[in-house]
Write a structure and sequence with these properties.
Length: 265
């Protein structure tokens, strides 16, 4: 049997310790490799490149929201919150994820239950959620695989209603369309002659008010009658409104003064 002398053994141990110390030092000096982070803005980007980057970020956001909806639906279906001692899933998330409202999770969940992830990324979670509500309000049938062909009645600024495909509708237009459907007495289009008359009034008021005033003239259908709304009239300039309208009242229009009722005895 080969045996080391005492002095040799001591030297071997010291050498091993020295090697271990060198390894430890080398490990400490090794820095984790962090992949370079791509800056959001690159010098010289074109407008179309910026649009492309924004579309990618939006797609990522919609995909994340969709998957959050899937997770929320899983918690609801399996009753995981109740099993953990909470009243329900919204109660659990209010306590454990205070920065994420149950209303948002409910929105994501409804979309995840009704549409596929590619559809959610393509059309947007918010738009699809509004489509689900619009579908119920309007009594429509929606192709959940290809919802883009659904016809939406979108009201314009002048009260006119235009048919647009869902694929061409913005979130704001979907909200306006839904609001229109929730007011069935005002859902019929305004007659063309009334829209033209409203345009005349609008033209008459243009430039009549002080700088900075944004006066609006809107026409809508209320229980079968066309109604004009004048908005943002400065109190000090109501007289200007009256005079401008008086000069453009169409022939044959009925003008009458409402008499005040005598004070009761």
């Amino acid at each position: 049997m080969f045996r080391l002398k005492s002095k040799e053994a001591k030297n071997v141990v010291q050498e091993v310790k020295h090697m271990v110390d060198e390894v430890k030092q080398a490990v400490q000096e090794v820095k984790p490799v962090v992949p370079p982070v791509k800056p959001a803005v690159l010098e010289g980007m074109t407008l179309e490149q910026v649009r492309g980057e924004l579309l990618q970020l939006m797609a990522g956001e919609n995909a994340n929201h969709y998957r959050m909806g899937q997770l929320y639906n899983y918690v609801v279906e399996k009753q995981l919150a109740q099993q953990a001692g909470y009243k329900d899933a919204p109660s659990y998330f209010r306590q454990k994820l205070a920065d994420l409202s149950p209303a948002s999770l409910n929105t994501y969940g409804a979309v995840a239950k009704s549409f596929s992830e590619p559809v959610a990324v393509r059309f947007g979670v918010t738009c699809l959620y509004l489509l689900l509500i619009y579908k119920e309000a309007a009594g429509l049938k929606v192709n959940h695989e290809e919802p883009g062909g659904t016809v939406i009645e979108v009201p314009g600024q002048n009260g006119e209603v235009t048919n647009k495909l869902f694929s061409a509708c913005s979130v704001d237009e979907m909200r306006k369309a839904l609001q229109l459907k929730r007011k069935p007495t005002s859902s019929k289009p305004v007659p063309a002659e009334d829209v033209a008359l409203a345009d005349q009034y609008r033209t008459a008021l243009k430039g009549q008010f002080s700088q900075g005033s944004v006066v609006q003239v809107l026409v809508r259908n209320e229980k079968g009658s066309s109604v004009l709304d004048f908005k943002s009239i400065p109190v000090a300039e109501v007289g200007t409104l009256i005079m401008a309208l008086m000069d453009h009242v169409p022939p044959g229009s009925e003008l009458r003064r409402v008499e005040k009722a005598p004070p009761s005895a």
